[in-house]
Write a structure and sequence with these properties.
CATH superfamily: Zn-dependent exopeptidases
Oligomer: single chain
Number of helices: 7
Order of helices and strands: HEHEHEEHEHEHH
Shape: globular
Structural class: alpha/beta
Number of domains: 1
Mean pLDDT: 89
Radius of gyration: 16 Å
Largest sheet: 6 strands, mixed
CATH topology: Aminopeptidase
Distance between the termini: 38 Å
Helix content: 40-55%
Strand order of the largest sheet: 2-1-3-6-4-5
Length: about 210
């Protein structure tokens, strides 16, 4: 991991500065962060025993804490704030009820190949007036995670995931696969709180500086 993912101490100040510089340019949009899995649904289980549901919740809660420290915080909500199971349909219904402008689903990956690594960002293949915005944001997030944190970029991909399919008609929506829990290096990386902090900061920075045409 040390050869691939960057030490957070080298990128923290840069990421923080990007957020500060982006504050004034950002327009206030309502963002719903979908925290993957939860409750009896652990999601993927890491080679070191960490669970996807816990990693996703840790990242999401760290995003909230960082956002609350901004001079002008973004309007961010979570689909869950603790270890509880929320159905996929209820997650998308919440986005509609909140009139969210953006839906971001947080996950971690898993593979039978222990060498598989990197970040994938998904958008739905269906076309709507929000498709271009979703795709643009997906590329921005992937690039930030690669350049600032050193994650390998596995591409922006199309998928018919329910949470994307049921939200794209009324808001831009993306799904992040933040590293492989089946990879010993990335699983250990995601176990360290300082790295979770850097991930959360990178995601928040992308949200802060997005150029949504909504």
């Amino acid at each position: 991991m040390k050869k691939v993912l960057k030490n957070v101490s080298f990128v923290f100040l840069l990421l923080k500065m990007c957020i500060i510089l982006g504050q004034e340019a950002s327009t206030q949009k309502r963002i719903l962060i979908d925290v993957g899995h939860g409750g009896k649904d652990s999601g993927a289980i890491g080679i070191n025993g960490i669970q996807e549901k816990d990693v996703a919740l840790n990242i999401a809660n760290t995003i909230l804490k960082l956002n609350n420290k901004l001079q002008k915080p973004l309007d961010i909500y979570l689909t869950r704030y603790n270890d509880t199971l929320i159905s996929l349909s209820d997650r998308t219904k919440l986005a509609k009820a909140l009139k969210a402008n953006l839906f971001v689903s947080l996950h971690c990956n898993h593979s039978d190949n222990p060498n598989a690594r990197g970040v994938e960002v998904y958008v739905v293949g269906a076309t709507s007036k929000y498709s271009d915005d979703a795709t643009w944001l997906a590329f921005q997030m992937q690039a930030a995670l690669n350049k600032k944190l050193g994650f390998e970029s596995r591409g922006v991909k199309f998928a018919n995931f329910q949470v994307l399919r049921e939200t794209i008609s009324y808001c831009a929506s993306v799904l992040l696969e933040l590293g492989f829990l089946s990879n010993s290096d990335e699983a250990e990386y995601l176990k360290q709180q300082e790295n979770v902090f850097a991930l959360a900061l990178s995601i928040l920075n992308s949200l802060q500086n997005r150029k949504m045409k909504l």
